[in-house]
Input
Amino acid sequence: MLGATATPAERRRAFREALASGRLLQFPGAFNALSAMLIAEQGFDGVYISGAVLSAELGLPDVGMTTATEVSQRAATIARNTSLPTMVDADTGWGGPVNVARTVQTFEDAGLSGLHLEDQEDPKRCGHLEGKSLVSTDDMLIRIRAAVRGRRDPDFVICARTDARAVEGLDAAIDRAKAYVDAGADMIFVEALTGKADYERFRAAVDVPLLANMTEFGKTPLFTATELADLGVNVVIYPVTLLRLAMGAAEAGLAEIRSAGTQQGVVDRMQTRKRLYELLGYDEYATFDARLANFRKEES
Output
């Protein structure tokens, strides 16, 4: 009720402790505050905030068109409504070294627990699309060092994402990852790996936590949590899953209304008003403020 019960600092410490535990952490992607609340209710370890999802919500492709302000504002709304750790996609950091440092501080102020920066050139694009271009390793090291220097809370997690597997090959991606760790990255996000052998190579090569991206319709097979844990992965994100589920259901519902002239045929697929009120915690608000106690919860 009234948002997160844990402070941002507490959530960051919890994230650090969970990463040190060695177990696999599952971070589904939230497309708004309500979906983040559902993720927490279902018992997941954290919430991921995807740049692709935020772009799509604005009606934009994932090609670096969102601004730091747009992403930080939405990320803050999500973070304040869950006591789980939250990790956000910071694209390329929105500028040069000073901008990257400011981006880190902006997300700290927004209550986030960590972010990832990638080694693509601007304008960046979805990691599972063709035609990606990378900055040099030296330029990416500048980004990472700027992020580390800008960080004020040492528990805030800075993750370095490399898209080099699809551009320069596996060996080059591993070399980049090692250099990123040496520059201060707390975790490595290896994008668009094509099989278990790739993860095994990365796990043997770097001694910091690894993040795996289980996005649908991409280059990486959809491994189970057990398989990822056995590979030594520490965090798995499902960045667009909830948005795709919601949009698929919305599209089907609109088609039903258009063809049948009523939504009656899809009512049984909807979240009920009662269930929505439970998720939002109406009873807790009524207990907190008696003036709210006269609302009526419909059963449907």
In short: Residues 241-260 form the longest helix (20 residues). The two ends are 22 Å apart (CA to CA). The longest strand covers residues 157-162. The chain has a mean pLDDT of 94.
